[in-house]
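In this supplementary section we document a worked example of the pipeline. Step one takes a protein sequence of length 444 as its only input; no multiple sequence alignment statistics are reported here. Step two produces a three-dimensional model, which step three serialises into structure tokens for compact storage. The input and output of this example are shown verbatim.
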Amino acid sequence: MSVKVENLEKNMAKITVTVSAEDFAKAVEQAYQKNKTRYNIPGFRKGKATKKMIEQQYGPQVFYDAAINNILDAHYPAAAKESGLDIVSRPEIGVEQIGEGKDFIFTATVAVRPEVTLGEYFGVTAEKADVSVSAKEVTERLNRELEKNSRMVDVDRAIKKNDIANIDFVGSVDGKEFPGGRGEDYPLTIGSGTFIPGFEDQLLGAKAGEEVDVHVTFPENYGAKDLAGKEALFKVTVKSVKEKQVPKADDEFASEVSEFETLKEYKEDLKKQIKEEKEKRATSQVENNVIAKVVENASVELPEPMVEMQLEQMFYDYARRMEAQGIPMDQYMQITGLTEEGLKSQMRESAVQNIKTSLVLDAIQKKEGIEVTEEAIEKELERIAEQYRMKKEDLAKTISDSQKLSIKRELDIQATIDKLVSEAKLVKPEKKSKKEEKEEAEEK
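The serialised model returned by step three reads:
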């Protein structure tokens, strides 16, 4: 195997790999042995026909796809290592030469770790975390406590906004039911915007036991393309109507949910709780503010495949979280009208920022030679062992060298962040104008 590297624009590179004709022939033979039972040759039982006979019947390239996969599995990892490139994406494979008796030549176009041009990073000016507590925040926390102690009560009246209607529904387009259009005992909060625009509004005024024909039009950008822009009819049966009853904020409520006898004392305690929570979050907030400033001062050109790979990971993590909550991703997209592309588009800014942050911190750590001691690593292993209720000795037996290296890297990066924060000039956050406060309140 020979490897040739060509550097391309925008932190991309092309690796050209030449595999000997002999090795390619072995890969074809391996593909034949694995797949020969799939082919029917008159006069032969499955799996008994020779490679030559199958090639005559199905074409000389019948085993090439499987052979290429064998070659890539066997040779690409070694070629990538031999290239000396710091590869940060999956390869885009191209076949340059293939044929019986010929060397097999393929290319792998990859993204490489981009160079970071660091700006100012020690001594940057960043905002302190604000740990003051406003009366508005106390009121919001009190309202949340009231909501937590609310109860849903069946009501015998017409549906109003914010009610929860328990419904059965069957959706159809042009008289035909479509996949995902049926539901039973669905608790729909009226006004939540959970369903297609216009759906919830048409349930206003209905009572338990009534049937409602809901006419809607799917948005043009709806996730299921076969439904996008089409008119649909939902046959909806209202099974029950519930309203939320929220307790009053008074001394009686305070005495029921806390150790205090008056609402005033309870609110003072809520204020204290909020301040303690803010102080706990302050370290993380300061770190984020400093890091954001440091990253802003640096410059780096990200190769698109690197961003795409980050987006795929973020999408996978999001889908896993949804499914952990009992919501399959296809159902989530059906309900929200989102597509995979649409969700990734929403995640793109975060993906780019995550990559830039990681690259910049790595560059600073290497430039400054910031490394933790063995003692710090051992202390972290003790913490992990305690977390999993294991003996440190037993944990050491299960952790591989690569995992230990990963732990060290995380500690090195955290030490770099600690150094950046200790060197930063922290200033009080600018007081928001009444206009900004009003805009934030409207957004909430």
